[in-house]
Amino acid sequence: MKRRDAETPRENQVCNKVIGAAIEVHRILGPGLSESTSECVCYGLSRRELPFKRLVPVAVTDKGIKLAPVVTKWTCALRA
User: CA 19, 16, 73, 42 torsion: positive or negative?
Assistant: First the structure.
């Protein structure tokens, strides 16, 4: 993935909403990656009208080596 130096205003707005949802859950439930925490983050994303998908396989590479894909609890798309 190529890194860019600047985010678009929409990407910045979406990132702020995602971080806000995660911080809200962290304040209420504390740290952790339990199923209930994931569900609360999904609820927070829905309340902020952010589109997201659950259980998304993500390719992982490290120093050019392809590793086994992982499945995320949720992912939020920056682009439609």
Answer: positive
> Can you give the pTM of this predicted structure?
0.55
CB 10 within 8 A of CB 78: yes
At 23, is the secondary structure helix, strand, or coil?
A: helix
Exposure of 73 in the CB half-sphere (CA atoms within 13 A): 14
- Distance set, CA 30 to CA 5, 27, 45, 60 (Å): 32, 6, 18, 28
User: For residue 18, which of 80, 77, 68 has the smallest C-alpha distance?
Assistant: 77
Polymer length in residues for the chain: 80
Residues 43-79: tens digit of each pLDDT: 888 888 888 888 888 888 888 899 888 887 777 765 4
